[in-house]
Design a protein that fits this description.
Helix content of chain B: 25-40%
CATH architecture of the largest domain in chain A: 3-Layer(bba) Sandwich
CATH topology of the largest domain in chain B: FAD/NAD(P)-binding domain
Number of domains of chain A: 7
Order of helices and strands of chain B: HEHEEHEHEHEEHEEEEHEEEEHEEEHH
Shape of chain A: elongated
Number of helices of chain A: 26
Shape of chain B: globular
Largest sheet of chain A: 7 strands, mixed
CATH superfamily of the largest domain in chain B: FAD/NAD(P)-binding domain
Structural class of chain B: alpha/beta
Oligomer: heterodimer
Largest interface: A-B, 131 and 127 residues
Number of domains of chain B: 2
Chain lengths: 1006, 414
């Protein structure tokens, strides 16, 4: 049965018919429809099932506050669960499915829980499912999880993409209803740059539906002309389908724009997240109508009065043929009049107030409507939808006076300003008794960096729910926002638009219908439609001592559904306050958390997906590695070749080959990821003396020194070779992973502690590539390429550096070694590094030159007993533990970590210290294995006396070698330790000197 | 207060649930208690509970500035695990995990401990080595963990993208008996039992001063009057520094906001807890169906519990990469909790320079999982003056350099 009215529907285009499907059934709607209006027009009343009791659910609202009509949209890579039908714009081919039922929407097995609902009050699960213990994980919890959860999970990768915008603006106006338009106009006329956003596809908000008149025009006309004038102003930008999502500290606002949800054929990003830095924010976010609490108010067909009006006026759809209005205020009379005008039946207007005397009530009577003051609803007739309404006196316990046939109930409990964004950033609310709502307290606004108000509130969001006062407040807010930027812009806003109010009778708060409803009715009076929280649940929470509003919320789950309590919070609060006998303002609200409306995760992630997620940092030689079969290893944001397996070779064999080739001939390593920090300035020397444990000020230009950096707590955090370039310039090498961290730490010390020292730090890691050439033939190779450079043992001694050219590339050659071989590290400008690499390869070919990866590097350094930050260190190891006393200056008064290293435990002779470990059977010790000691500690844990820090198969020695930290290790050479292995026999290893290869250093000093 | 059972629920159903008693009383503060605990979060309430249960000390008040369980107990991501590296940490977290196993029955309050398993992904060689080491350590500590390969990771959690592309999953440290629990219920369950034992849980009672006499604590000044006590325990997480200040000493604590969020609820699709430290984010699915997501801590000190965005963006980005299916889910709610960080990121359970005054704080980003163990050990410390579980977590360690640092996974490689 079609519910589409023969005429009307200001937002739909009847010339464009669109096909869509619901639960596989083909249906039609018009361009401009929402999924909700199109479904209603097709006569679809039942749209989903509630979360807990699987009760039948129909549409309640017409905007993002909708708790019931949640759908699964699309399929495969475009499937989205929990989409609100009320904000989903219809398009040709849209596929929608209802949720949370089995086997079908109409016949849901889970609805059995509705029949058992008396046994399942709020919090029942805290009191039950206790025995037998194992049943929780294996029986109860799986059953609960299966019945909960609403929509189905998407199983495919999202095929859409998303983007972020960053923008700085003078004034951001959130909400494009008449108040937002008025505020934006006022701010823009004052000269401010304005961004105006509206969550709906259309401008103007509710005013056209409410029939407001402004400046002598219809709302529609006024909106049209205001839009025209805004669009003509160069300092105004406007966006529809854009929600003010969250406001964070210091005026940082997030907007969520939907670009193609209504037009999936477009290939632009699906959503856009705007990151806005706004000088001033104007919240013109409107107000949200409250449902009324009466028995059966969750039946499909019970809707907000404003939503009923919206569907008739905006979409030309009749939510019902015979509607009963239930209200405590004048506004709902507009719905009655609208329905009458559309030729639809209004069975009665039940007004909970003792009298209905306002002009709108009078108009309703004049139109012949049956207005019944002092009345309420005792119950609803009908199971899966409203078939009739039982009428009672409001001040009764629900005795039925008569029963009215009806298929729709339009309810209005008054309006609550949408104060969410005001509260996100710390704005406070105050309770208004007259309007029975919380409104922003202008005296306690959110403040910006300067401690001044950063937000104004405009229109009904401020509590001014009638168009006249709303427009005045909006204009004032716009002017204030403009002014807050200073008078310099010099322009003056025009006058405030004048809204015409028909006058009204005050609303009377009603939190329960009828006032003395007995338990049986209160247990059927819904507060939170999605989560199935009823009046009786809040009462139970209060009775059991969950008196804080946060306790009541968490115990009952009130307001924790996907609408985040937009409809339920105030009603629930009122019930709680009644139970506690405390005024609502004392009970307070729960915290408003961003986002205002749920935001797609993909939009939060933005462009940074796949390849763009933490883009790989590449050395200038990266492409060569890729072309030559590199087996990669992620290191920080870099990828480094772990090894270069040649055809058919295993990674393990490749490492072995690379080590042996380097030790016997010459190897080539891309060490470009090495951190390179230039430290320069008159105070650089004393700065480095503070940072390093070594004395760097005495280093001579042309020389290098291996340096250690400790934390304030005395633990080793980074190491590397420092070269003095000239009188006041040092080049500090850091670990690959440490470059950014050490750079940041240098800046932190310079900016916070030694701010008056003249030192500059530049991170030149990517400006220079670094190539290691190691092995007995290394010098031969370089001599070939750079005959002009003297790299002889005397001219360039160990731990010295020199500038020159190799193969016509300008280079700086460091005579340092991390492999224990004769070794040079060659720095070259990044742009010429690949050329140098190629020339080295070519010149090295006759020498059997072998490129090697990080694993060969690790193996060779371990053979040589060199420590590796992150392996031998873990934030608890001191240089002294590692036998690096020689690198700690005794002559300095202070350096980072010095005092810490003097503490009792740091000098404890029982500390674990670095040794070599050699298994008795030659096998490789497992990574991270612990050496056990006799007995257990006070907590019953096996005692330990050491652990493996690095462990490798050594191709050079053809056996397993390891380094480890052992209690008093260096004093226990030759002792045998036992390392238990998970699922195996313990491995026995002997404590030995950690330098397995060339202990006298003859090779590296060659 | 009435015993909770399915039978009780059925019985009450037939009298409109009118017979339920208060879960905890709402008493006026008395003049004096043997022990006063400041802070009715999980740790404070658990301390009181074990003081009564294990040590027979029941003349106890737990004072709470706001509402009980309203701090980090009620705003964390509910993960419970004990796969720590250092012996002292493993001991107290494993004690806690073990107590969680039977907590619902002990408290007669279903805290919904769900040992569904926790995995920490290794996405670099360095992490692989780190987690292998942890597995070795755990085996000796009596903590059941295992290093598993990417195939098993995918089997346990099919929605993970193990192939990368950016950071392929190389394996994971798997603790099958780790899991989650219902965070509020932990505080409520302890509060109910404390109240049942005759202890006073007093909400809306802010401590504004600490009184001492002859170097020992003698009582507290509160917004609801002065209260004398024999012993005082300060268990107030991010606000510990303020309380210490009242007693005249300082704590090595910084307070920062830690960010978290949940998605809209969906049907079950993830049965385990996954933590991905390389990309920085962790996720599990609550019994309600929400994907519960935790991220990093803000880089500045702060006392507001507001959500900030930069970490949320970073975390969601990491998790969309790890679990591509969440891209079309929607973030429902984000928030911040104030975590109390020490220099070594390990807690402080300790006596203080003031006699009979003890502090339990510094749990940082990992306090929820420790609640029962922390309460157990801290109660023992307060009752007897020493406790093996707390021995390593004394304040002296900062002076002596005896740090308990778990940051190995955050180490770096060449």
């Amino acid at each position: 049965m079609s519910r589409r009215l023969p005429k009307g529907g200001r937002l739909i285009d009847r010339s464009k018919s669109l096909g869509f499907s619901f639960n596989g059934k083909e249906m039609r709607g018009y361009a401009g429809d929402t999924l909700a209006s199109a479904l209603l027009a097709e006569g679809q009343v039942l749209m989903g099932r509630s979360f807990k009791h699987h009760r039948p659910r129909g549409i309640v609202a017409s905007g993002p506050e909708e708790p019931n009509a949640l759908m699964g949209l699309g399929r495969d890579g475009t499937f989205e669960p929990n989409a609100r039908a009320t904000t989903t714009e219809l398009f040709q081919g849209l596929e929608a499915r209802s949720q949370n039922h089995w086997p079908s929407l109409e016949n849901d097995f889970g609805a059995i829980s509705s029949m058992l609902s008396r046994f399942l009050p709020s919090g029942f699960y805290y009191k039950t499912f206790l025995w037998p213990r194992a049943f929780w994980k294996h029986v109860y919890e799986p059953a609960i999880r299966l019945s909960a959860g609403l929509g189905k999970p998407p199983m495919r990768r999202d095929t859409d993409h998303y983007e972020h915008f960053n923008i700085t603006i003078d004034v951001l106006v959130i909400g494009g209803g008449i108040s937002g338009l008025a505020a934006a106009s006022a701010a823009a006329e004052s000269g401010a740059d304005v961004l105006l956003v509206e969550q709906d596809p259309a401008w103007g908000g509710r005013a056209p539906v409410d029939g407001a008149r402004i400046d002598g025009m219809s709302a529609e006309e006024w909106i049209g002309s205001t839009l025209q004038s805004l669009q003509s102003m160069p300092n105004v930008r406007m966006r529809t389908r854009t929600t003010g999502s969250g406001i964070h500290d210091h005026g940082y606002v997030l907007l969520h724009e939907r670009l193609t949800d209504h037009a999936p054929e477009h290939s632009v990003p699906r959503h856009r997240l705007w990151k806005v830095r706004a000088g001033q924010v104007v919240a013109a976010t409107g107000a949200i109508e409250r449902p009324l609490s009466f028995a059966g108010n969750d039946r499909p067909g019970c809707m907000l009065a404003s939503a009923v009006r919206d569907y008739v006026v905006n979409y030309g759809v009749a939510p019902g043929e015979r509607t009963v209005i239930l209200t405590n205020n004048d506004d709902a009379y507009r719905t009655a009049l609208t329905l009458r005008e559309a030729g639809l039946g209004v069975s009665a207007v039940l007004d909970t107030r003792q009298q209905a005397t306002g002009p709108l009530a009078a108009a309703a009577r004049d139109a012949g409507l049956n207005v019944r003051p002092g009345c309420g609803i005792a119950g609803i007739v009908g199971r899966n939808r409203v078939d009739g309404v039982q009428v009672c006196r409001q001040d009764s316990d629900g005795e039925v006076i008569d029963v009215i046939q009806a298929d729709c109930v339009a309810m209005s409990g008054g309006w609550s300003p949408a104060t969410h964004v005001w509260c996100h950033a710390g704005g406070k609310l105050s309770w208004n008794d007259e309007a029975a709502h919380f409104a922003p307290d202008p005296a306690r606004p959110p403040t910006g960096v300067d401690g001044m108000a950063m937000m104004q509130v405009a229109g009904s969001a401020s509590g001014a729910i009638h168009s006249g006062t709303a427009l005045e407040s909006a204009h004032a807010a716009g002017v204030l926002a403009g002014k807050a930027l200073g008078e310099s812009r010099g322009r003056k806003a025009g006058r405030a638009p004048a809204g015409e109010d028909e006058g009204h009778q005050p609303m009377e708060p009603v939190w329960l219908v009828p006032a003395r409803a007995p338990y049986a009715k209160r247990a059927k009076s819904w507060l939170d439609f999605q989560n199935d929280v009823k009046v009786s649940d809040i009462e139970l929470a209060a009775r059991e001592g969950y008196e804080s509003v946060e306790h009541a919320k968490r115990y009952t789950t009130l307001g924790m559904a996907t609408d985040q309590g937009k409809l339920s919070n105030i009603n629930g609060l009122a019930i709680l306050s009644r139970e506690l006998g405390a005024p609502i303002e004392e009970v307070g609200t729960t915290t408003f958390r961003p986002p205002y409306v749920p935001v797609t995760m993909g939009a939060i992630a933005g462009e940074a997906r796949g390849e763009l997620f933490q883009p790989v940092r590449k050395t200038p030689i990266h492409e060569w590695h890729e072309a030559n079969g590199a087996h990669w290893e992620p290191v920080g944001h870099w990828r480094r070749p772990y090894a270069f397996p040649v055809q058919g070779e295993s990674v393990h064999d490749a490492v072995k080959r690379e080590v042996l080739a380097t030790r016997s001939g010459v190897g080539l390593l891309d060490a470009s990821t090495l951190g390179k920090l230039v430290v320069k300035g008159p105070d650089a020397a004393r700065f480095l003396d503070m940072l390093y444990t070594n004395m760097m000020s005495t280093l001579k230009p042309g020389k290098c020194r291996y340096g250690l950096m400790c934390s304030e707590n005395g633990f080793l955090v980074d190491d590397g070779v420092v070269a003095r370039l000239d009188g006041d310039t040092w080049l500090c090498h850091t670990t690959s992973g440490g470059a950014d961290r050490i750079h940041a730490s240098m800046e932190e010390w310079l900016q916070t502690e030694w701010w008056d020292w003249k030192v500059y730090v530049a991170n030149v890691t990517e400006q220079f590539a670094q190539i290691g050439v190691a092995g007995p033939r290394a010098r031969d190779l370089l001599n070939e390429l750079g005959p002009s450079m003297d790299l002889g043992r005397e001219a360039l001694s160990f731990m010295a550096w020199t500038d020159g050219a190799l193969g016509n590339v300008p280079v700086r050659v460091f005579r340092i070694s991390f492999s224990g071989e004769l070794s040079f590290e060659i720095a070259a400008p990044a742009g010429q590094a690949r050329a140098l690499w190629d020339r080295l390869l070519e010149a090295g070919r006759p020498l059997g030159m072998t490129p090697y990866g990080t694993e060969a590097l690790h193996v060779m350094r371990a053979e040589k007993g060199f420590i590796m930050i992150g392996d031998e260190t873990d934030g608890t190891v001191t240089p002294q533990d590692l036998g690096l006393h020689w690198a700690i200056s005794k002559r300095k008064d202070d350096f980072l970590g010095k005092r810490a290293q003097e503490r009792e435990h740091m000098t404890d002779p029982l500390r674990w210290r670095l040794v070599g470990l050699e298994t008795l059977d030659g096998s490789v010790l497992p990574d991270g294995a612990y050496a056990t000691d006799e007995g257990v500690n006070a907590n019953g844990q096996q005692k330990t006396q050491g652990r493996v820090t690095s462990t490798y198969y050594s191709p050079t020695l053809d056996r397993g070698i390891a380094m480890g930290l052992v209690e008093r290790g260096p004093d226990r050479m030759g002792e045998i330790l036992e390392f238990p292995v998970i699922d195996g026999e313990p491995v026995r290893a002997r404590i030995v000197n950690p330098v397995f290869h060339d202990p006298d250093g003859e090779k590296q000093n060659a | 207060m009435g015993h909770y059972s399915a039978l009780a629920v059925v019985r009450e159903a037939f009298r409109d649930h009118r017979g339920w008693q208060r879960a905890w009383k709402s008493p006026e503060p008395r003049r004096r208690y043997d022990v006063v605990i400041v802070g009715a979060g999980g740790h404070g309430l658990a301390t009181a509970y074990y003081l009564g249960k294990n040590h027979g000390i029941r003349n106890v008040a737990v004072l709470e500035k706001g509402w009980l369980g309203g701090g980090n107990t009620g705003r964390n991501t509910t993960i419970i695990r004990s796969n720590y590296l250092q012996d002292a940490s493993a001991a107290i977290y494993e004690k806690a995990r073990t107590l969680y196993e039977t907590l619902s029955q002990d408290l007669n309050y279903n805290v919904m401990f769900s040992p569904r398993g926790v995995m920490m992904l290794a996405q670099t060689e360095h992490e692989v080595r780190g987690y292998r080491r942890t597995a070795h350590a755990n085996a000796l500590q009596g903590v059941e963990t295992e290093f598993i390969g990417p195939g098993r990771v995918k089997e346990l959690c099919p929605i993970i993208e193990v192939r990368g592309p950016r950071y392929p999953v190389l394996g994971a440290l798997w603790q099958p008996r780790g899991g989650t629990a219902r965070h509020d219920a932990v505080a409520w369950g302890y509060a109910r039992k404390c109240s049942e034992m005759g202890m006073d849980v007093i909400q809306q009672c802010e401590v504004t001063g600490i009184r001492t006499s002859g170097g020992d604590v003698s009582g507290v000044v509160t917004t609801r009057g002065d209260i004398d006590c024999g012993k005082l325990g300060i268990v107030v997480a991010g606000h510990s520094g303020h309380l210490a200040d009242m007693a005249g000493f300082r704590l090595p604590i910084e307070s920062v906001a830690l960010q978290a969020l949940v998605s809209e609820p969906i049907k079950p699709c993830m049965d385990v807890v996954v933590m991905a430290n390389t990309v920085h984010g962790y996720m599990s699915q609550s019994d309600k169906g929400e994907m519960v997501i935790g991220g990093g801590a803000d880089g500045f000190n702060n006392y507001t519990q507001r959500g900030s965005f930069s970490h949320i963006e970073e975390t969601v980005r990491a998790l969309v990469e790890t679990f591509p299916m969440i891209s079309r889910l929607k973030m429902l709610r984000q928030w911040g909790g104030i975590v109390d960080m020490t220099g070594d990121r390990s807690p402080i359970l300790s006596g203080t320079p003031v006699g009979n005054l003890f502090v339990n704080c510094g749990w940082g980003t990992g306090g929820f999982k420790a609640i029962p163990g922390s309460g157990w050990g801290f109660a023992e410390l307060m009752a007897k003056g020493e406790s093996p579980l707390c021995a390593e977590f004394g304040l002296d360690r900062f002076r002596e350099g005896r740090f308990i640092d778990e940051s190995v996974a955050a180490g770096v490689a060449h």
